[in-house]
Amino acid sequence: MNDFRMALVRLIRSKLRAEVWPKFWILIPLLSVVQLPIGLLLFQALAFLGIAEAPRWTQLHILISVAYGLASGIFALGTVDFAELSESHTSIVKWLARAGMVFPILLILTLFAIFASP
Predict the structure, then answer these.
(1) What's the pLDDT at 102?
(2) CA torsion sign, 99 to 102 to 105 to 111?
(3) What is the pTM of this model?
(4) Cα gap 107→85, rounded to integer Å
(5) For all residues of the chain together, what is the average pLDDT?
């Protein structure tokens, strides 16, 4: 399994420039943290403008955000050790990956608690 992860990291590294490499690892989990709140605001604005499909798009966006958060978190936690980053970058990526896995689920549960109560 470690050989597969090392090969995957080498493949990704061959496609990216050296100066982008640390930013790539930070952006993967960071996107999973910020995409859900920004998307919810965007779809709320679209619904305010009168677009009838905005609630359905919101539901789809929530499902995609949870799936992306889990997938990017598992990917980042499983492969960041083979990325040859500094210790501080590795710990930041791991922290963001854990937050990216938990944050969308907690936000959705919070929204359910707020809006589902009578």
Answers:
(1) 92
(2) negative
(3) 0.83
(4) 30
(5) 90
Say how far apart CA 115 and CA 86 lie, in whole Å: 43
Two tokens at 67?
């799936």
Residues 6+ apart with CB under 8 A from 31: 68, 72, 100
- Count the neighbouring beta carbons within 10 Å of the beta carbon of residue 72: 22
Report the 3 state secondary structure along the chain.
CHHHHHHHHHHHHHHCCCCCHHHHHHHHHHHHHHHHHHHHHHHHHHHHCCCCCHHHHHHHHHHHHHHHHHHHHHHHHHHHHHCCCCHHHHHHHHHHHHHHHHHHHHHHHHHHHHHCCC
Six-digit token pair at 83?
A: 């990325």
